């Protein structure tokens, strides 16, 4: 990992100059601070740190086992974490990304995936949903739904015209710097987080986790009861936690996998969160906190079914018509267009394009790890999220973050076209 004379200081900060004296040329995860503008390897200058991160995510750097740590607003530290040289571990982590194993996820939907959906009619999955979540969900049997990788040309066109891409399944093991955290590690983190939350009152609303009981946020609900439902799920009174900030996620390096870069190039990666979802957890239709692109993967034995819809004018109009109300999926199922089904397990990660309207059913309990990011193709979808007023029912702080992300996206996109 020794430096060579070809390394270029990425910023002018006096305090950071010694960091560049032993800067790695390969086998490292690099943390790009907000002061950095110059590529240490090719000396190209960029307008901001986000553009530099995007530059360093090119394949030529990935092939040297160079990865970029997720962006954190206000980050000032410069540094890196050494990674194993490309051997058994690295080859296993990157199989399917480089060389002869490359799987191309081009702009046209491919049926070659890391974990393809079953090829039979989706009615069996829909019956499983009905059996676990109630007969009212039998309405889905009468809707035009297909597996995500078997959608019609017409539905594919709805996705590609309204957002950055179609949804995709990726290899979940590629989302971690080394290995994924174990369910028991997240469980211990959760206990610590709950005890810390109960003893602290200074956290901002956006950094606090939320307990959801019978489909609604309930601040009075005991979060430890959610932990108990992992062992003894309650179909009549399901509860789950969202917005957990668990240190194991950062420790094991949750990030966008290289596979996704053949479709879109993510930048401004932020908002790592964890949801604890026992069996019978149902999350009704929503578009995420900020309408951004998203990446999610489950840990352990967790199994989820996702219903995804593109952010077309028809679908966003329908969502706005009952914004802030309950029972969205049951009330809108026959109005929404372009719907697809996705099943995820711990072997998968799911990419949700910007503005994607979605609902989830948990058929086997566990943890869901998520992050937000954006792409140069996401402007229309994020703009539509705001234009249709779907940010209006967000908490004040979340709405401010949504607007800040939108402005940052416009600036990044504008500067990209000039560089």
Structure description:
- By secondary structure, the protein is of the alpha+beta class.
- It folds into 2 domains: 81 residues, no CATH class; 296 residues, Jelly Rolls.
- 28% of the residues lie in helices and 21% in strands.
- The chain is built from 12 helices and 16 strands.
- Strands 5-14-11-16-9-8-6-7 form an 8-stranded antiparallel beta sheet. It has a 5-stranded mixed beta sheet with strand order 4-13-12-15-10. Strands 2-1-3 form a 3-stranded mixed beta sheet, with no helix packed on it.
- A hairpin with a 2-residue loop joins β6 and β7.
- The longest helix is centred in the C-terminal third of the chain and has 23 residues.
- The two termini are 30 Å apart.
- About 9% of the residues have low confidence.
- It comes from Penicillium daleae.
- This is JmjC domain-containing protein.
Key phrases:
419 residues; alpha+beta; Jelly Rolls; 2 domains; 8-stranded antiparallel sheet; 5-stranded mixed sheet; 12 helices; 28% helix
How would you summarize this macromolecular structure in one to three sentences?
The protein has 419 residues and is of the alpha+beta class. 28% of the residues lie in helices and 21% in strands.
Write the layout of secondary structure elements.
Layout: E1 28-31, H1 49-56, H2 59-62, E2 66-68, E3 79-82, H3 88-94, H4 123-133, E4 146-147, H5 153-162, E5 168-171, H6 183-199, E6 210-213, E7 216-217, H7 223-231, E8 239-244, H8 247-251, E9 267-277, E10 282-286, E11 293-299, E12 303-309, H9 313-321, H10 328-332, E13 340-344, E14 348-352, E15 357-364, E16 366-374, H11 379-387, H12 396-418
Parallel strand pairs: 1-2, 4-13
Antiparallel strand pairs: 1-3, 5-14, 6-7, 6-8, 8-9, 9-16, 10-15, 11-14, 11-16, 12-13, 12-15
């Amino acid at each position: 990992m020794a430096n060579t004379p070809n390394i270029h200081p990425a910023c002018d900060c006096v305090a950071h100059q010694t960091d560049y004296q032993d800067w790695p040329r390969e086998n490292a995860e690099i943390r790009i601070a907000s002061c950095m503008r110059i590529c240490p390897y090719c000396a190209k200058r960029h307008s901001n740190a986000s553009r530099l991160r995007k530059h360093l995510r090119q394949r030529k750097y990935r092939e040297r086992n160079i990865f970029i740590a997720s962006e954190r607003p206000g980050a000032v530290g410069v540094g890196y974490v050494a990674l194993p040289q490309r051997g058994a571990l690295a080859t296993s982590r990157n199989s399917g990304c480089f060389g002869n194993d490359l799987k191309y996820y081009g702009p046209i939907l491919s049926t070659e995936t890391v974990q393809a959906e079953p090829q039979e009619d989706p009615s069996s999955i829909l019956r499983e949903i009905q059996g676990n979540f109630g007969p009212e969900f039998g309405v889905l049997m009468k809707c035009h739904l297909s597996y995500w990788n078997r959608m019609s040309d017409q539905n594919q066109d709805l996705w590609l015209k309204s957002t950055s891409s179609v949804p995709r399944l990726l290899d979940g093991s590629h989302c971690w710097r080394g290995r994924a955290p174990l369910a028991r590690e997240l469980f211990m983190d959760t206990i610590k987080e709950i005890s810390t939350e109960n003893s602290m009152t200074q956290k901002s609303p956006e950094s606090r986790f939320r307990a959801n009981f019978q489909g609604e946020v309930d601040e009075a609900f005991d979060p430890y009861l959610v932990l108990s439902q992992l062992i003894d799920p309650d179909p009549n009174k399901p509860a789950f936690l969202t917005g957990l900030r668990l240190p194991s996620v950062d420790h094991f390096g949750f990030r966008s996998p290289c596979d996704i870069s053949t479709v879109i190039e993510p930048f401004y990666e932020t908002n790592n969160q964890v949801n604890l979802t026992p069996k019978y957890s149902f999350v009704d239709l929503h578009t995420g906190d900020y309408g951004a692109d998203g990446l999610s993967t489950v840990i352990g034995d967790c199994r989820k079914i996702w219903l995804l819809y593109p952010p077309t004018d028809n679908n966003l109009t329908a969502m706005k018509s009952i914004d802030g109300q309950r029972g969205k999926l049951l009330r809108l199922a026959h109005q929404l267009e372009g719907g697809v089904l996705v099943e995820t397990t711990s072997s998968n990660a799911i990419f949700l394009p910007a503005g994607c309207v979605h609902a989830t059913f948990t058929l086997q309990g566990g943890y869901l790890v998520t992050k937000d990011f954006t792409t140069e193709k996401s402007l229309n979808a994020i703009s539509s999220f705001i234009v249709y007023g779907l940010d209006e029912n967000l908490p004040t702080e979340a709405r401010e973050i949504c607007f800040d992300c939108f402005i940052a996206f416009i600036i990044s996109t504008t500067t990209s076209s000039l560089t």
